[in-house]
From TrEMBL:
Record's keyword terms, sorted: Hydrolase, Membrane, Transmembrane, Transmembrane helix
SUPFAM superfamilies, A to Z: HAD-like
TM ranges: 283-304
Source species of the chain: Streptomyces parvulus
Protein name: HAD-IB family hydrolase
Source lineage: Bacteria, Bacillati, Actinomycetota, Actinomycetes, Kitasatosporales
Listed Basic and acidic residues bias regions: 28-37
Any one Gene Ontology molecular-function term assigned to this protein's record: hydrolase activity
Alphabetical list of Gene3D superfamilies matching this protein: HAD superfamily/HAD-like (3.40.50.1000), SG protein - dephosphorylation function (1.20.1440.100)
Sequence segments annotated as region (Disordered): 1-51
Family: Belongs to the HAD-like hydrolase superfamily. SerB family.
Pfam families xrefs: HAD (PF12710)
């Protein structure tokens, strides 16, 4: 006699239906679970990042168009012009040099030397303390509202994980330090202008912190801070910073120019784009502040052309 044979026909029928219902319900549940697994986003297999409590990890952020829309030195120049540090013709030349560099994307040594000399001539003879104080004011006037919220959140994630966060920029170190402090970051690496007795001489100490020089600065800081670069992160918008990005184990392309975007995709680096204008993304110009810089540079070019005729 089967397991249900002792039951009456009616009860055997009811029990069999219950078993069938139970099996059907179980099968439906299994199918539902399988369907959920199939439609769920795939597991990236990557651990949480940044890693909390990893004291040998840190983050390095480029400044211009990565943390802030536009070039810090351009905004600083606007503030100095407002305070009559130089004349209109100097502003026109300065704006044109900045626009040319960002539009052409070329690192012509002669052109870059000319731009560098112009910037240094502006601060020559002024006290370092004076420029630092003015930098605080200029941050509030022109820079604070141009910080990318998305990049700021990335930096904060590293800070919340207990890691140090550094700005790495070709902008003057005094400006970079003001911005880093205002954002609550650890500190900044920037271009150092020579000063004697607290007064700028109009010369640089070494070269601008640009391209390969950034990578060397990050490497030196990592050694001094006992960091493991394979556990560190770096963020930039420019292909000029590929040497810095290539140093770390976690490189990010932020608002990338076309060359960096291509390079990042080939190497499967992470990309983040916080700009709203796709045209800006294609040509590598800041979507907001960059428009003003280009417009100012174009006007300056016309004015210079007319003056030379």
């Amino acid at each position: 006699m089967g397991a249900l044979g002792w039951l009456s026909p009616r009860r055997r029928s009811a029990t069999a239906r219950s078993v069938l219902a139970g099996e059907a319900s179980a099968e439906a549940a299994r199918k539902s679970a399988r369907a959920a697994e199939e439609t769920a986003p795939p597991d990236s297999g990557e651990p949480d990042f940044p890693v909390h409590g990893d004291e040998r990890a840190a983050a390095f952020f480029d400044l211009d168009n990565t943390v802030m829309q536009g070039a810090a030195i351009f905004h600083f120049g606007r503030g100095l012009y407002k305070r009559k540090f130089f004349e209109t013709r100097d502003l026109a030349r300065f704006a044109w040099q900045q626009a040319y560099f960002r539009l052409a994307g070329l690192e012509d040594p002669e052109h870059m030397q000319d731009a560098r000399d112009s910037a240094l001539s502006i601060v020559k003879g002024h006290r370092v303390s004076e420029l630092k104080s003015i930098g605080e004011e200029i941050y509030d006037e022109y820079m604070a509202e141009r910080i990318w919220p998305g990049t700021r959140a990335l930096a904060q994630a590293h800070l919340d994980a207990g890691q140090k966060v550094w700005l790495v920029t070709a902008a003057p170190v005094e400006i970079a330090q003001v911005i880093a402090r205002r954002l609550g970051l650890t500190g900044a690496l920037g271009t150092v202008a020579e000063s004697v007795g607290g007064v700028y001489t109009g010369k640089l100490v070494g070269e601008p912190l640009h391209g390969p020089a950034k990578a060397e600065a990050v490497r030196a800081l990592a050694t001094a801070e006992h960091l493991d670069l394979s556990r560190c992160a770096a963020y930039s918008d420019s292909h000029n910073d590929i040497p810095m990005l290539s140093l770390v184990g976690h490189p990010y392309a932020i608002n990338p120019d076309s060359k960096l975007r291509k390079h990042a995709r080939e190497l499967e680096w992470r990309l983040r784009d916080y700009r709203t204008g796709r045209k800006a993304a294609k040509v590598g110009i800041p979507a907001a502040a960059g428009v003003g810089a280009v417009a100012g540079g174009t006007a300056a070019a016309i004015a210079l052309h007319r003056r030379r005729r």
